[in-house]
Each structure stands twice: as structure tokens, then as C-alpha cells.
Specification:
Oligomer: homodimer
Order of helices and strands of chain A: HHEEEEHEEEHE
Number of helices of chain A: 4
Distance between the termini of chain A: 25 Å
Structural class of chain A: alpha+beta
Strand content of chain A: 25-35%
Radius of gyration of chain A: 17 Å
Shape of chain A: globular
Largest sheet of chain A: 8 strands, mixed
Number of strands of chain A: 8
Chain lengths: ~160, ~160
């Protein structure tokens, strides 16, 4: 039904910039985040832009880009680490997860394969955090929920999403 | 970098429909697909609309919707089955995976919990296919790749994506 509705809704709006644009306006925006892990530590960034606070490295996916390649680019830009992706933790799509707009974010788990942690680009800072410390911190977006799911994943694997 | 670039690019376009719309125009569009399994069979649909052919049930995600809820709605509309989601198989984002536009699709694995298979909405037909038959069929989009990953998942679990 969505498919038909979405295309049907194009007609009255086609004078405002073309049908494709209006069609896409109805959709959430894809982003991607990465949990970089090594032993009992993960990489956390401190965001330079709003919403500020601690968060996982990640960012918006551009049209024409492959998700996993954008994940590696964002990890490098924000943490200075070369990262190899290992697994997908889950996909998070709660419309309230980002105060700016509705985003859908797949979250990868990866490992560092080069470089040293240093904040860059949208990250004012980047550092290793012991997983025992996760519970005692607040995080931007729904990254606390994502990280609590990650702690479950370390014990029992599985895949996760916003309402699970 | 994406985040900053994307917002910076808004200004010159703001006379063409508002910044948010132009911002989103740069992003792939999220869809969601579901592999409904029972024993050694999965549900396949025959698409009513272009691109025609065999495919997994699924569809576009609307702004404001939670991904997993849209997955359950699409499964019901296209196969008449009530579905419970069990795991996430992966996320597929190859820009060429859909001939119409760049889509990103998380793929859930679910089980039927009610109803009988019957095509509806965008599905001209829906039916159970034995997993042994997957290899001998062609599918729309990148659904053959997704289904080959699903066959791996049945043997060794794990999570999958376009370039893995």
C-alpha cells in the first residue's frame, strides 16, 4: 500500500521541484553508526554539533553510497581509526530517536585495524570507554539503548531493533 | 563530513521547497523486506508492479513509522499472513539494487503466527517455496543475493550486507 500511496501522492506536488524529491520527503533518512570494539572497550565520541553529548561514531548516508562504506568513512573521520566491520547489531528507527528528523540507523560492530583514537570532523573528542562504564553515562540519540543491546549481544549474540 | 556538507548545501536551494526537503533528496530511501519461514519453506510473492518478477514481501517505510512495524504491515498486505519477527538477516544498500531509485533495505526473518498465504496489494500472488528451489529461480531487485545469504544464515547464522 505504501508504494502505491507514495507514488500517487506525487502528482499534486510535481510543480514544487519534481516528483522524486517529493516522494522522498515522505521517508525517514538513513544514517549509520559503528560500535568499534577491542577487548572490553569501545570507542565513544563527544559530539561537536547538536545534539551534543557522548555518542557512537556515525553519520548520514548519501544517495549513491553503500551503507557499509559510509560506516567505515565516518569511523575514520570521527575517530581516526581504520575499521573492519564484523557484524550488524541491529537497526533503530524510532521516529523520536533523533530530535532533528526521523532517521533509520543500522548499527555495525567493527574492530580497529589501524590508527590511533583521536577525535575529528563532527567529533570534538574520541576515546576508548570500558564497557563497564556504559551504564553510568548518558548518550545522545537512542545510543544508550543501542549500547545496552550491544551488552546483551556480547553475552548472547542476536540482532536488535527499537521495539525489541 | 556528510553531516556538515549536507546542511551547508541547503542554503542555495531553500527557495525550491524548504531546506528539509532538499536535504533529504540527497539520501537513499529506506524500504524493508521480510523472509517468512516455516520449516524448509519461505513465502515468495509475484510482483504486480514494475520491476515485476518473484520477490520477498516488503515495501517503502513512511516518515514517522517504525521499521519493524512496517515490515509486519507489508507482510500482512502482500501475503495475508500475521508475522512475528525473529531476527535481522542484514541490510542491503547497493545503489543498483532497485532500478527505480537508491533504496536501503533491512531484511527481517519472521515466522507466520496466523492466516493463510494469499497474494494481495502489490503482490499478484504469494506462495510457499521450498528453500531447495531458491537457486533455480530469478528474483527482482537483489533478492537472489539476499536469499543466498539467508541460506548461509540457516547453516551458520551471522549478519549480511551488500558487499559481504
Amino acid at each position: 500500500m505504501v508504494e502505491q500511496l507514495a507514488f500517487n501522492q506525487l502528482a499534486p506536488r510535481s510543480n514544487r521541484g519534481g516528483p522524486i524529491r517529493d516522494f522522498m520527503w515522505k521517508n525517514p533518512v538513513p544514517t549509520v553508526d559503528v560500535i568499534i570494539e577491542k577487548d572490553d572497550k569501545i570507542v565513544i565520541i563527544r559530539r561537536k554539533n547538536e545534539p551534543k553529548g557522548l555518542a557512537l561514531p556515525g553519520g548520514f548516508v548519501n544517495e549513491g553510497e553503500i551503507l557499509e562504506e559510509r560506516a567505515i568513512i565516518e569511523a575514520k573521520e570521527e575517530t581516526s581509526l581504520d575499521v573492519e566491520l564484523k557484524e550488524l547489531l541491529g537497526v533503530y528507527s524510532d521516529p523520536k530517536r533523533d530530535p532533528r528528523l526521523h532517521t533509520i540507523t543500522p548499527v555495525f560492530i567493527g574492530k580497529p585495524v589501524g590508527g590511533h583514537v583521536k577525535g575529528g570532523d563532527d567529533a570534538a573528542d574520541a576515546f576508548w570507554m570500558n564497557i563497564d562504564e556504559i551504564k553510568s553515562h548518558e548518550f545522545a540519540f537512542d545510543h544508550k539503548k543501542i549500547l545496552m543491546d550491544y551488552l546483551k549481544w556480547r553475552k548472547q549474540k542476536g540482532t536488535y531493533w527499537s521495539t525489541k
